[in-house]
Amino acid sequence: MALSGLEIYKLLPQTNCKDCNYPTCLAFAMKLAAKQAALKDCPHVSEEAKIKLEAASAPPIALVTIQGGEGEVQVGNETVLFRHEKTFFHRPGLFWRLRDNDDIDELKRKAAEADAYTVDYVGIDLHLDGFAVEAASSDPAAFSAAVSAISSVSKKPLILLAPTADLAKAGLEATNGARPLLYAADQDNWETMADVAKQAGTPLAVRADTLEALADLTQKLKQAGVEELVLDPEVSGYLDSLERLTTLRRLALKKTFRPLGYPIITFPGTNGEIDETLLAAEHIAKYGGLIVLEEFNPASLYALLVLRQNIYTNPQKPIQVQPGVYEINSPDKDSPLMVTTNFSITYFSVANEIEGSGRPGWLLVTDSEGMSVLTAWAAGKFDAERVAKDAKAFNVEEKVSHHKVIIPGHVAVISGELEEEMPGWEIMVGPREAVDITSYLKAMWPN
Amino acid sequence: MTIEIPKEKWTGSVCEVTFGATADEGGTRSRTLTVGGETAMPFLHFEGVTPNPPALALEIRDRKPDDWSPLLHQAWGEAMEDPGEWAKAAETAGADMIYLALSLTTADGEPNTPENARAVVRKVLQASGLPLAVAGPGQAEVDNQLLVPVAEEAEGERLLLGICEDKNYRTIVAAALAHNHLVQSKTPMDVNLSKQLVILIHDMGLPLERIIMDPTTGALGYGFEYGYSVMERLRLAAFQGDSMTQQPMLVNPGFETWKVKESKVGEGVPENWGDWDRRAQEWEAITATTLIHSGADILVLRHPESLHRVRTVVDALVNPAATA
Amino acid sequence: MSRYIATRAIRGANAIVAEADGLLNKAIAEKGGDFPVAFPNTAYYLPVMYGMLGAEVSTLGQIEPILEHAKNLLHPLPDEQLWTPYLGETLDCGMSTLLAAEAIEAIRFVYGEQPEPYPGLELAGATSFTSPDNGGGPAADGHLNGPIDDIQLRSWGIQLVDGRMPGFAAIIGAAHSNKAAVAIIRELQKRNILTFLTGNVNGRSIIDQLVEEGVEIGYDTYIVPFGRDTISAIYAAGFATRSALTFGGMKGGQWREILLYNKFRVFAFGLALGEVDDLKYATAAGVLSYGFPVIADTIIPEILPTGVTRYEHVISMPWNEIEGKTEEEKAAKLVQKCIEVRGVKIQITEVPIPVPYGSAFEGEVVRRADMRVEFGGKNSRAFEYLLMADKDEVEDGKIELIGPGFEEIEEGGYMNMGIVVEVAGRKMEKDFEPVLERQIHYFVNGASGIQHIGQRDIAWIRISKTAVEKGLTLKHFGDILYARFHGDFGTIVDKVQVKIITEPDLYAEWLEKARAAYDERNVRIGAMTDESVEEFYSCTLCQSFAPDHVCVVSPQRLGLCGAYNWLDCKASFQINPTGPNQPIRKGQCLDPVKGYFVGVNDYAKSGSHGSVEMVAMYSIMENPMTACGCFECIMMVIPEANGFMIVSREDTSMTPAGMTFSTLAGMAGGGLQTPGVMGIGKFYIISPKFIPADGGFKRVVWMSSIFKEQMAEQLKQVAEREGDPDLIDKIADERICTDVEGLLKHLQEKGHPALTMESLL
């Protein structure tokens, strides 16, 4: 039975020293109870308390950090099987596999292109997380050269696919002090790989084709002093992925089975018969931690990045859209001006309907802290004052000449106040539901 | 060390629902379609059964739609000119079911009529032997006006009639009762509303074996995660024994994904969005396959190639022997 | 059960079974036992025989065993001396009457005597009946309808099932006068009720009356003449049986299911006009089995207890005694009574006023310059009062303006006004009065050109010039309220009547009554305790945000959002029985201090899908109630101060917990039980059931100053209740301190009781 925050609090120093970066011991205790903080963040906890708390407080799935020249990827520390139970915390890293037997210039070109790849999704910058460089040549010099070449054009985190300690070392030296993931220790090489990882202080992936063998290996590696591990259960299809990754997640969460309490790395493109994108999508939804892609295709990558963003959105903190005035279908000064909140779903439904209507329009998205129209209104985040303030802040005055603003039907009640807040403006009450926007515009905004 | 898979012990299961009727059963379909019956979360064969694979339906219209993506026009070509031909093409493309959506207006802009709706349904029934779903254009009055005669026209065929929503379900349910059809109960991404509408429809006397839940999904990137989680929750509730959440789930990723900019628009979009055709298909296929993992029993799609790709995934997931 | 009715029904049944027997013997002798029998254009054989007995009758000979069965159901007349309940016997006789009647009509078809000839009559839409006398075409010289054909049954059936058609009326006999007949029919038509016509009184049928008055009858007008004798009422029973078979998915022989289907789903009733003879009593007894009550416009004994029907069985409403100056007024009352007895719900879809109406106008402001007149505010007073009344005291739809309108008031002027709404309903409860009364604000505000603020006796209403130009008058307030209460609260409200009072004396009188009622309600809500009720309510409105969260709302602990108290939940459940507020039987109380109840725990377990095992209603430290995210305030333990702080959603400052409201919200929300942190509604703070398990209100060491301002009066009373009148001063707020050190200093200076209470941890 997990300890409650209050029970944990009793074991803490109760000094509110803030060294853990939480304001009070109680706040820290509650975060520990929710498995969102690690006990090691408290430098003052007594040994006795540590033993008592250890079991209850260590996250059931370890956190693994891979660092590049700039930026890092963190995976693990998940606490639930289904995102609605709390949230999925650390988005799986998406890596593109490059091989050292490729021409160096070609490698640089590819890495630079992928490094520069970025798409904007509701104001969020989506991009590839890094590269998995494979020592396909089995030649340390070639591998080192390839890693150097890639590092010279990209500061993103790396995974070094190096089957031997020598290769791994060669690759490591070429990373300029970054902290890549070494891949992988197996039954045969685990001791030497452990040495390399320990010495370099890098995380290490572990590969085996049964869960028993995996657990066996992770325990040995832990004893050898490597703490940050990543599991490769060698899955290759839709069904074995689902079964094994689900089993791993359940073992970690439901049984607190420490030997398998690590994030998972997968290679959805290695089985040539399988649709890589669709298997990668499954890995995103169902418990993948690091996903190494064979193919770099912007169209597919964009879709996968958005999927990852969606699945890893905190259900209690909905995606927000950047407040501002959005142009839809190239509006001009005579086009209607509509207002809504910055809850992503609300924004999408409204924007989509305006777009679908084929009519040009301005959409003022106010800062309602990511709440839907009614919720925001009830919480006082979408009242006349807020709408008027944002209308001013985003200069709607300069965008339209008609001085009319259409508010959502659900907040008809603010129309009176808004008239006062926006003198000289006519407040029109629009439909309650976004689907009725087209017919509303037809009726109320002829031309 | 031996490691045991931690298994869930569920008490509930998903209700089995059968569409269509063959000649023996009073209809004219060449086969029927059964969905539901699961006793565990999707494809976890180690703790439960999936007696019926998720079904894939293709949406067709009573006339060539004005607002579909040019990519879809390319994919279907001439067949879109005639609902009968379109239904045949959909059957050839591998659909398990035809999902016929009636339009608000006819091609010349006149309001759709009961006579036209009857004729189209008759034509589609004659063209393809697959089980058929018929949905109204989505405006309460028109839906009722069109679906009641459709229900009568297709007496005996065990159609799926859609779409029952909170504000308009009684007439459609009554028509299903009168002519022995099934209904699609659609609610906006909310577990309790979903349950409530099933209760209300069931209270009118329609057996649970004739109700399909449509919890509504968003397209990838457009609220997808809400629908996804609502479906997971509905399915978990079903296994926990909540009988009014045990209906098989239908979702319409085709409709949702083909209306978003990523699929609809090929020009004037960021370069990194990549190839239009591929992007649009990824959008539909990823939305669909991911929804399968949250418990979808019927997926309505629009592009024949997406259907093909999703089918491959379904086949692999359903059949343990198919994967090594 | 009345012995009188039993006696006459049983006598009538015996007679008609004998008649059917004679006719059948004659028919078999003349036509042979294999001669086919059927009602044209219908399915399900002879439907009552098929539905009740599962008999697939298609020949004359097959009727014989049916009549044998009918005979077996007959009972002897009740003994003159010995008084027994008779209901069972009477219903049996009713059933044998229906079987016999169906046999007779079937035989009449054999002889071409059905549908009944009616020379000269042209039906406005009818069964496509073909007459052998007319070469296969329609009967040349007119006929009544006979049984309703299948196509029509399905079409009307859909409307009956989906609610567009509220129900059907089977009229037997003839009205008091032709004028009365027309008035009754018009009342039924107005309500979209399907009407079947049968029977006669001394040879005169309501069909004759309507034909004489030129009323169009037939499918197209929803008035179907079955036949001029009582026997033709069998077609109504056939229609009901076929409805259950078609729409209820029942099979022949499932008599119990078919009867119950009709009782619960088909809102039909019988209306007996004129003298009731034995056969009519017997037929009425048959109709009762379907759960259809019978209303008579003559003096007959009533059967008031419910059972076979949902409400009363037999009601007598003698035409001469119905209040009303005209036949129309009497007819309206008679039909209203029928509707009440059957529980037919009427839908009103439009608000009949001369200005636009809809939620879009809810927030509209009427400025002084645009104002025609105002009620309430600075210079005058307006009050609104909704009260429950006995159903006989409320005349549905009656709207009165008592006193002058505002026509005489100068432009921009003011006057006093009272709005009194009287409602009656079988499911209405006194406790719903305030819940419904609060709706007046929203209902009235929906009209374009009316601004409504406040409630009770501080209501403030303005009407714009534009609205008045369009014709808006005070009476329209009544129209709005009538339509909306029926529309939105139809499940608990059956009748609504509205008085708009401006006449000074009456205004004063009603204001006094209203104020007395407000006081009484306040006292009642204050006196309502968790112990005084058997049920709490769940609220799952927020599960979309926090899937495993469930609110448990009790009289002394309102919902954490502050929007739903126990009465609201109770009313919401009545209005929407499948909605988010469901009753929770408290069950055995396991711990009265912490507030553990068997029923609440069970509910928490299932409602949270297993993630919460137990809920303490009155503790924050042990198994506290979960929260979604829409709490009005968050309370959290401050261990150093041995007490709790309460921070308001509206307070953005730092708190002694080292976190602001929004950071705390992440901890308190999400449907997780986090002892030491809890989201609550602000009025819970002043409840006597405020965390008694943890020491109650005396444990509050810090609260956002906004509470001290908004609830000053109530907090003062709480302090007194706790025996420490200066307690509120001892509690810190964000103006005094926002950290633990400052808090402790303040508490020590003021001598806050929490410091000396038992340790919380």
What does this molecule look like?
The complex is a heterotrimer of chains A (447), B (324) and C (761). Chain A is an alpha/beta fold. Chain A has 17 helices and 17 strands. Chain A folds into three domains: 5-57, Electron transport complex subunit B, putative Fe-S cluster (3-methyladenine DNA Glycosylase II, Chain A, domain 3, Orthogonal Bundle), CATH 1.10.15; 63-311, Dihydropteroate synthase-like (TIM Barrel), CATH 3.20.20; 324-444, Rossmann fold (3-Layer(aba) Sandwich). Chain A has helices at residues 5-11, 25-33, 47-57, 104-116, 140-153, 165-173, 190-200, 211-223, 238-254, 276-285, 298-311, 344-357, 373-378, 384-393, 396-399, 415-421, 437-444; strands at residues 63-67, 72-76, 93-99, 118-121, 124-127, 130-134, 158-161, 181-185, 204-207, 229-232, 265-266, 290-293, 324-328, 337-340, 361-365, 404-407, 426-429. The N and C termini of chain A lie far apart (67 Å). Chain B is built from eleven helices and ten strands. In chain B, the strands form two sheets. An eight-stranded parallel beta sheet of chain B has the order 8-7-6-5-4-3-10-9. Chain B is globular. The mean pLDDT of chain B is 93. Chain C has four domains: 3-110, Helicase, Ruva Protein, domain 3, CATH 1.10.8.190; 148-340, Rossmann fold, CATH 3.40.50.2030; 359-526, Bifunctional carbon monoxide dehydrogenase/acetyl-coa synthase(codh/acs), Chain M, domain 3 (2-Layer Sandwich), CATH 3.30.1650.10; 531-756, Bifunctional carbon monoxide dehydrogenase/acetyl-coa synthase(codh/acs), Chain M, domain 5. Chain C has a six-stranded parallel beta sheet with strand order 3-2-1-4-5-6, with helices on both faces. In chain C, strands 10-7-13-12 form a four-stranded mixed beta sheet. In chain C, strand 2, helix 7 and strand 3 (223-227) form a beta-alpha-beta unit. Residues 131-137 of chain C have low confidence and may be disordered. Classes of the chains: A alpha/beta (447), B alpha/beta (324), C alpha/beta (761). Chains in contact: A-B, A-C, B-C. The interface between A and B is large, with 56 and 54 residues.
